[in-house]
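It is worth pausing here to work through a concrete case rather than discussing structure prediction in the abstract. The textbook approach is simple: state the sequence, then state the predicted structure, then interpret. We follow exactly that order.
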Amino acid sequence: MMKLTPRLGLQQHLTPQLILLMRIMALASQELRQEIAKALEENPLLEEDIADEATEPLPSDEDMRLLEHLSGGPAGPVRAPVEREADDDRPRQDPGETVDRDLRDHLLEQLHEEESIDPRLLPIGEWIIENLDERGFLDEDCLIIALQLGAERDEVAAVLEQIHRFDPVGAAARDSQECLLIQARHYFPDRPHLAGLIEHFLPALKERRYPAIARRLGIGVPDVLEEEVRLLTLNPIPARGFGRHDAATIAPDVHVIQVGREIVVRVNDDGQPRLRISRPIRKILEDGRATSEERAYVRARLTAAKWFVRAVYERQRTIHKVTESIVRFQHAFFEHGPEHLRPLALRDVADEVGVAESTVSRVTKGKYVSTPRGVFELKYFFGGGIGTMDGAGEISARSVQETIRRIVATEPPDRPLSDQEITERLNRLNGLTIARRTVAKYREELGLGSSSERRHRPRAHDRT
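Step two, the predicted structure:
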């Protein structure tokens, strides 16, 4: 027997502005320029301010309060990117990871953190993630995967559905259309017309056949335009914002510059067009001769343009604030070098800047900073610490790695130090409580061989 039972509860819904902001935050500077070029092409209300005179005012105080709230992110529906352990992050001054590799690592971390997946089915999830293409799509049918792995089709489908909900939402979809459809149903479950628009009318939407779409969906043209604005906030390529297409070229997202005794932070906006809202087209709203459909179209495009401009502005502003916070926490690094890095958690920066940890994660993942000491991924400055013998504090794991690098570089060539000897020297010099197996792990991560391997390494005069 069925009956209605009233229930009180709080439920948070994602706004289109927040979804767009989350996507823009994840983009590196080179990808942001591509996104801006795409927006300029698709939205006639956006134009490049060639004269360098911004006609659109900066966001008002009210708008900024809204953006502060948005950048904090919701606590519920969105999975925050899973952070790696401190020991797994290494400086990437010459990174070799591709876009797909970076995305796969990100998804694998979430897979192994997901408590709702039966541990027996983890190999299925690993197979799916390892077989994504460079855009983050999966070109395999569930039945074929099941036959290859000796699993049931329903088991594969269940795991795949879980991966679809990971961050980024829509990963492992078959194509861009399915990726958008998954996001629409995830972010806007109460808007079936958006899903219908994606599922049946993308070609008509590209040709701007709004009246025909409205008739088929049984809604008005303004409603179609409103759904299109929401559609523009979604991401059709799951791998966008992860890694680099060209691993040999790094475009820093932010510069840290030493000016005398002062350290200055400057966001890299070189080559990035300045945006403004097109006044001539906006005047259509004031033109009494324009039809209601024309005014609805311009109004929808105007809304999308304002959201985009504000998202770009907030991205630059947040990167600047987060980097300034990192510089304050890691001032000793910029003064004296990597051995003076201190333990730093995302929460420390998030609390100081006034945003959520997930925002700091998005801002720092895959973003690079140019410093007087080289180019580093912003993630490099975060990491856990190793306790000292006196219990007075911690030393950054990265600082310990740099000390190991220095010890090995200065050891006698004919008598390289064992891991135990390096451990004893670290404990004696720095007062650490570090285990030999941890030293061995750090040594391997630095690409340094064992003592026996280093004993047989070629000397400088042997290579000439």
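Step three, interpretation. Residues 97-243 form one domain. Confidence is low (pLDDT under 50) at residues 52-100, 244-248, 459-464.
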